[in-house]
Amino acid sequence: MLEKINHIGVAVQSLEATLPFYRDALGMQYLGTEVVADQKVKVAMLAIGESKIELLEPTSPESPVAKFLEKNGPGIHHIAYEVHDVSAALAQLKAQGARLIDEVPRDGAHGTKIAFVHPKSSNGVLTEICQPGH
Ligand code: CMX
Questions:
Q1: Which residues line ligand 1 (CB under 6 A)?
Q2: Alpha carbons within 13 A on the beta-carbon side of 23
């Protein structure tokens, strides 16, 4: 079902303040920044081999990332696994008893279709299932 790790999401207070570390100090390829209105986040993507690092800055105090930052401070927020078919992956996860946050996929950054599994059913790790866009 899973193809690879698509990206690791990192919650940050400020993209502007964080980007230089990943882009300039670590030397990752900066792929661009996009607002994902549905998730109330601004997202910067950086490539590392076949995977990416996704920096997440909240755009509203109601953003899930704002709540995470308030509780934990900046740090790793989620792991996103890539699949060919997000709906099929959700059906399999549900059949195996996983607690789905999204029963139906939502629109993610860069044309992706995404859905989340609750961290309480994945040992404390917020898990994203992600189908690449075209
Ligand atoms: N990783 C691990 N645990 C997390 C977590 C995270 N990212 N976010 C919340 N939790 C834990 C909390 O610590 C809390 O645990 P305790 O009950 O033991 O204290 C529990 O989950 C409930 O958390 P909460 O702060 O009360 O927050 P909510 O229940 O309101 O929401 C969640 C939690 C995961 C359902 C919500 O954040 C969500 O729907 N996330 C999916 C969407 C998302 O994160 N979008 C941003 C990224 C978008 C993108 O990548 O494009």
A1: 9, 36, 39, 41, 43, 54, 56, 64-65, 67-68, 71, 77-78, 101, 108-109, 116, 118-119, 124, 126
A2: 15
Q: How far is the CA of 129 from the centre of ligand 1 (A)?
A: 15
Supply 103's token pair.
Answer: 């029963």
Contact of 19 with 13, CB cutoff 8 Å: no
All residues at 6 or more sequence positions from 110 whose CB lies less than 8 Å from its CB, including other chains: 34, 45, 133
Cα 94 versus chain centre, distance: 20
Q: What percent of the chain has pLDDT over 70?
A: 99
How long is the chain?
A: 134
Query: Domains along the chain?
Result: 2-131 (3.10.180.10)
Where residue 111 falls (left for φ over 0; alpha for ψ -120 to 50; beta otherwise) is left
Please give the mean pLDDT across all residues of the chain.
Answer: 96
What is the value of pTM for the model shown? 0.97
